Amino acid sequence: MRGPGGPGWFDRKGALVAKKRGISEAKLALYNLLQREKFRAVPPGERILFLPHCLRKPKGCRGENTEEGLVCKHCTPGCHINSLSTYAVSKGYRCFVAPGGGMVFNLVEKYRPRAIIGVACHHEIGQAADRIVGKESSFNFAYQGVLLSKDGCVDTQVDESAVREVIDLQGPPPRGGPSSMATSHVPRLAVFKRLGGIAAASAAVLVALFLLVPPILAPASQQGTKGAPEISFLSKPTATYSRDGDGNYWAEVHTSVYNNGPAPAAGVLVQATSFYCGNKYEPMNGGIQHFTVNGTIGAGHRADVELQLRVHGLNDTSITIETLIHNRVQLIGYIKSPKPAFLSNVGVTGYVTGLASGREANLSVSVFNDGKAVYAAGSLRVVATSYSPFSTRIESSETVLDRSLPTNSTWTYSVLLKVNELDLGHPFFMVELYNRGGSSPADAVTVDG
């Protein structure tokens, strides 16, 4: 069968797509290199990570669509958006999951970061790079991009280690690395060698820029200030949680800021921020708190910090601890969500049809213990419920932990739930984890049939 362009049209189209992808890769390699040192100089608290909407898992995602993109609910342990947004926030970043470039630029204009990381397909990332270099934004910022390893707009993939490597870029280049742009282009020549035709011509221009422009644009090396204070955490930041009479949850944050440098540290401010689903929680109502160190912290001395911080709940909040000197971030700590036991790998493994029971779904349920405590037999319970496509409850089943659950171990079992064969469409299931005697679930997962 002939394609729209005659014999061989599909082959030519595939070659054209490959060339366009190659040009995008070449542009990205160039822009990343040009802005790498500028990006390193920006503190994580002034950076934004943008993830594409298509990275979410299409089945069972409980993310909420808002005017600022998808808000991750951290419902699927293996989801790229879940793991990367959690990691970025732990490093002090803002993170947004945007459906397209228009929203990205609106958010950049709104929050005005000094640096951003973009994860996208070759088409989107090429357009973004062009807009950035074309100075379409009203202010300058450093940019780094990471290409998807599998695109297609649905259930896409990315190399998480590559994204984390960019997230972690900070400070001057490591010792022993290339001392100039001119010596750092060699590994990237493989990108250009894969191209042909029009792409090769574009690549030639980019190679010239690659070799000639960077030495002109490279910023002067930054030397550390001699005799400056060196701030660190003497003790790892910790938090204890409580609930007040009005039903609000609070975290009491404790840490000690230590000055290991030769000079006294003056103007020290410690800021604690609570996050829920990757976003700041109640910043105007206690979700952000400050501790001002009176006087200075002498060399070899410490300041003990205690903050009362508003949080969303007892097991779904993460907290960042920033230490600033004269409003410049010096140090970032992280307290992860205290969720010791959570649901993982929950799914429908098949259906069973019996004469008496009718049709039943076989659900596999796993509970993982990520905490320090050992859960005794009977201390956890899981409630699994089947629903029709019209959200009508069909059947519930409660299962109680039948053995001890040590740290880093998993309790896995199967449960049969009735489904209604008369309903059109697919059933869905809600699985909820409770601490024994608790009235609110510690974790919940929705599963499509």
Continuous helix count: 8
- Helix fraction, binned, reads 10-25%
The proportion of strand residues reads 35-45%
Shape call: globular
Walk me through the structure.
- The protein has 449 residues and is of the alpha+beta class.
- The chain is built from eight helices and 23 strands.
- The chain folds into three domains: 9-217, no CATH class; 231-335, Sandwich (Immunoglobulin-like), CATH 2.60.40; 341-448, Sandwich (Immunoglobulin-like), CATH 2.60.40.
- The two termini are 38 Å apart.
Summarize this structure as a short list of keywords or feature phrases.
449 residues; alpha+beta; Immunoglobulin-like; five-stranded antiparallel beta sheet; four-stranded parallel beta sheet; 8 helices; 23 strands; disordered N terminus
Quick rundown:
With 449 residues, the protein is an alpha+beta fold. The protein has helices spanning 9-40, 80-90, 101-111, 122-133, 160-167, 189-193, 198-217, 283-287, and strands spanning 47-52, 64-66, 69-71, 94-98, 115-120, 142-147, 231-243, 249-259, 265-266, 268-276, 279-280, 288-292, 296-297, 302-311, 318-325, 328-335, 341-354, 358-369, 380-387, 393-400, 410-418, 428-435, 443-448.
